[in-house]
Amino acid sequence: MSASLAEDGSAEAVAGAAVHGRGKWVLVVSLGAVFFVLYTLYAAVLGVLLPNQIQDIDPSRKASMLGMVFAVTSIFSTTVTPLSGSLSDRTRTRGGLRRTPWILTGGVVGGVTTILIPHGGDIVGVTILWVIATICLNSMQPAITTVVADRFRASERGMVSGVVGACMTAGISAGTIFGGLMAARLSLAYGIIGAAILLVCVAFTLINPEPPIAREVPAAPRLTPAAFLRGFWISPREHPDFAWAFLGRFAIYMGYQAILTYLLYILQDHIGLSQAQANATIARMSSVTLVMLVISGLLSGWLSDRIGRLKPLVFVAGLLMAAAVMAPLISPDLPGMFGYAVLIGLGYGAFMSIDLALMTHVLPKRGVGEDTTGRDLGILTTAVNVPQIISPVMAAALLGATHNNYPLLFVAAAGFVVAGSLFVLPIRSVR
Question: Which of 223, 244, 266 is the last residue of a domain?
Answer without folding.
Answer: 223
